[in-house]
Amino acid sequence: MKQIKSWAQYYVDLMTKLGLVRFSMFLAAGIIVLAVAIQMGVTLFLRGNIDVIDFVRSVFFGLLVTPWAVYFLSIVVDQLEDSRQRLSRMVRKLQDMRERDLELNTQLQENISRLNAQIAETNRAESLRLQAIEDLENEVFQREKAQLHLGERTALLRSFIDCSPDLVYYRNEDEQFSGCNRAMEELTGKVEAELIGLTPFDVYKQEIANKVVETDKQVFASNEPLTYEQWLEYPDGRKAYFELRKVPFFDRFGKRLGLLGFGRDITERKQYQDKLEKASRDKTTFISTISHELRTPLNGIVGLSRMLMDTPLDPKQHQQLKTIHLSAVTLGNIFNDIIDLDKLDRRRLEIAPTRIDLPAFLDELETLSRIQAEQKGLYLHFDRDGDMPQFVMADGTRLRQVLWNLVGNAVKFTDEGGVTVRCLSHPADEPGKLALHFEVEDTGIGIPRAQQEKIFAMYYQVQGKKHATGTGIGLAVSRQLVQAMGGQLYVDSDPGEGSCFTAELEVACAEPVLQEQEEEMPSLDILLVEDVELNVTVACALLGKLGHQVQVARDGTQALAMANPDDFDLILLDIQLPDMTGFDVAKTLLERYGDSLPPMVALTANSTGDRQYYRDRGMQDVINKPLGSKAVREVIGHLFADLAEDEADEQADAGNQDALLDIPFLTDYADTVGKPVLLSSVDLFEKMMPDYMAVLDSNMIAKDQAGVVEEAHKIKGAAGSIGLRRLQQTAQLIQSPDHPAWWENVEDWIETLRREYPGDIARLRRWLLS
């Protein structure tokens, strides 16, 4: 088939190339030749010879057939040409279509690739979307879990904050409350919703609010936490002492939003501090009492032994008397150290310069030093140098204590040799003053250089071959005493060669003054309640010498029988009696006689020095035993200084109920409303008084004068409304801050109120029921 197409294409191409005429001629010649050849071949095959006719017939046949063949071939060629052209066009179209198909196929492939990429991207995106959804669901779950946990923690934190007894609150930059806990709600009397948006001036009193806002400003100005203490007041008037801490707080961008406040009630701690201070005062009083009571006879021993040493004695008696004298002096020095140790602990050591006779002072020091030195067989050199005036202004007690301590130590730590005391004086740089220079040098064991400063520390004792003796407080107290007097105390020493202690100070020169005459005290009728015969003898002798008349009750029963207010001006009441305590006696007498009872003063050998303790139990004062004339004079002077002026009035008022109750008012009130109504008012007052006193005490602890006055005003009004005149008058004193020495007396007035109101209420009830 391909060959036919090739021959046909060949003829078509040849005819096209030769043209129709030449092709016809060529074709005719070809046909004639072909016809002749065929004719010749057939004739030869059939007849064996060839004629001319055969040749002519073949030519003729070729000429006859040639036109038709040409025509046929031309038609065929034309058709073939048309077919070829159509075919070419179709081929071109097919080629175009193929090219387009290829292009489309390429585009399709590209589209397929893109589609596949899009599908892959879509699948990837879908996978990511599903992953994102899963992550989102997980995040939502975690957030819900975290939110739940946060809610639980928030609730726990809120519960913790609300359950906390401490104040917790926060305020914004405009000083407005933004939230608080329940403790703060109790303090302000407002729930949190009411408190939000209020300022301190809307919540607290002006004075409290001013300090609150002032401290807020300090926090905002410094952006630093601030801790301070302040009294705050509850809605019922109670005051509490708070330790407050304020802290600025910021958002995550560092912008300050306001402050957080925390407050802890430290009222009890403050009360404990006050009690500690009171205990310290009690300790001081106790120590002072011991000093007074023991040093009084001790001074007698020192003075009498010194006088006896000037009398004719044999050597043994003289030596024994020296021992007594030295022991008494040493014991006195120990008392001084104990007292000053207590004052040093409280930073209350005071120097009281007085005029002292300097030569006499040095003579006394020399005498004591010589006795101490001779007691151990040591020599004593006492040197004085310089122009010394007769009198100087100095605390002789403190200076004597220091020098006695230095001399005592020198003798104590010297076994051989002796002690040298030097007193040097010269004018000081400041006019009118004298520089005193005391040296106490010994030949004793000496002090190592490394320990020479340590020996002035409290309780320190030098460690050496010789066993340490003493308390280790003498030098510490001595140095601080010298420093308090404006001087200095130091030591120069070498081990085995002795020590030299030097005290330097400046004193003012002074002129002597005449002694003032003692003030005369009134003569009193005194009931002494005491069971110990020796104490009775001493007390009666002392009181009789002071000009008083004394009657004695040996126990509580006798005291109750003898204590007639008309017979005595004063009752001295021992606390430890055989049959009852002095407090029992005082309570019974107060219930029996009330205001008409004369002053009662406690006598005790175990006094804590807290007079208020005895006043709370009905006593007006306390004296420590054994009685001393000075203590008795002070108490009587305090209680009866105005006796001459007030005796007539006091006798007239004794037993008068008008001093206790407002009788006219009560009579009119009872007639108007009836005694049952009045009794119910009395019951209400009795029920309210503990709360009144609690608020009053808190205000006193806070030193809040306005609060004290306000609460006293309430008590005054309440007491006056039921005719309790004495309580009303006492409350009037408390609510009068302009009263002279109000702060000095208000505590006593409050204690009087506390002590008297139960008895006054009982007296009022008895009057109403009578």
Automatic annotation (TrEMBL):
Keywords for the protein's UniProt record, in alphabetical order: ATP-binding, Cell inner membrane, Cell membrane, Coiled coil, Kinase, Membrane, Nucleotide-binding, Phosphoprotein, Transcription, Transcription regulation, Transferase, Transmembrane, Transmembrane helix, Two-component regulatory system
CDD domains hit by this protein: HATPase_EvgS-ArcB-TorS-like, HisKA, HPT, PAS, REC_hyHK_CKI1_RcsC-like
Domain Histidine kinase per the UniProt entry, residue ranges: 289-509
Pfam families cross-referenced by the UniProt entry: HATPase_c, HisKA, HKR_ArcB_TM, Hpt, PAS_4, Response_reg
Catalytic activity: ATP + protein L-histidine = ADP + protein N-phospho-L-histidine
EC numbers, comma separated: 2.7.13.3
Superkingdom field: Bacteria
This protein's GO CC annotations: plasma membrane
Compartments where located: Cell inner membrane
Every PAC domain range: 226-278
UniProt keyword annotation of Nucleus present: no
Transmembrane regions listed in the UniProt entry: 20-46, 58-77
Residue numbers of Phosphohistidine PTMs: 292, 713
Coiled coil: 77-125
Membrane topology reported for the UniProt record: Multi-pass membrane protein
PTM statement from Swiss-Prot or TrEMBL: Activation requires a sequential transfer of a phosphate group from a His in the primary transmitter domain, to an Asp in the receiver domain and to a His in the secondary transmitter domain.
PANTHER family the UniProt entry points to: OSMOSENSING HISTIDINE PROTEIN KINASE SLN1, TWO-COMPONENT HISTIDINE PROTEIN KINASE
Protein name: Aerobic respiration control sensor protein
Organism of origin: Aeromonas veronii
